[in-house]
Specification:
This protein is α+β, with helices and mostly antiparallel strands. The chain has helices at about 20-25, 40-45, 55-65, 70-85, and strands spanning about 1-15, 25-40, 90-100, 110-115. It has a single domain, classed as GTP Cyclohydrolase I, domain 2 (2-Layer Sandwich), CATH 3.30.1130. The protein has a four-stranded antiparallel β-sheet. The radius of gyration is 16 Å and the shape is elongated.
Length: about 120
């Protein structure tokens, strides 16, 4: 049985950006992750050891968000790669990284990059 685990609205303060100022002062980011995995065993056993542990997935996202990158694409790829490296049972994952109030010279709520693997 294919299952979808979604982790929505994870908020981080990080130092990603192309410009020196962004990497110096930092910004708020929101991350959404969708994990597709086989849930057959967990639906029967009711045991956390039989599922993709989303606490561990959160810790991976948090760790990757601490490492500064110039591009959101780079951040999203690192998160995807780390998730796939950690969870061999992961069939597919999607990561959306949004930078809130990006410095674009006007009012913009967020810019986002979404990658899937």
């Amino acid at each position: 049985m294919e299952g979808i685990i979604e982790m929505e609205g994870m908020e981080f303060f990080a130092y990603h950006g192309c410009y020196d100022t962004e990497r110096l002062v930092g910004n708020k980011f929101i991350v959404h992750v969708t994990l597709i995995t086989n849930c057959d065993k967990a639906t029967v056993s009711d045991n956390i050891h039989d599922t993709l542990n989303y606490l561990s997935a959160y810790e991976i996202v948090a760790r990757e968000m601490k490492t500064p990158s110039r591009l959101l694409e780079h951040v999203a790829r690192r998160v995807l790669e780390a998730l796939h490296d950690t969870f061999p049972e992961l069939l597919r994952a999607t990561v959306k990284v949004s930078k809130l109030n990006p410095p674009l010279g006007g009012k913009v709520a967020a810019t986002s990059v979404t990658l899937s693997k």
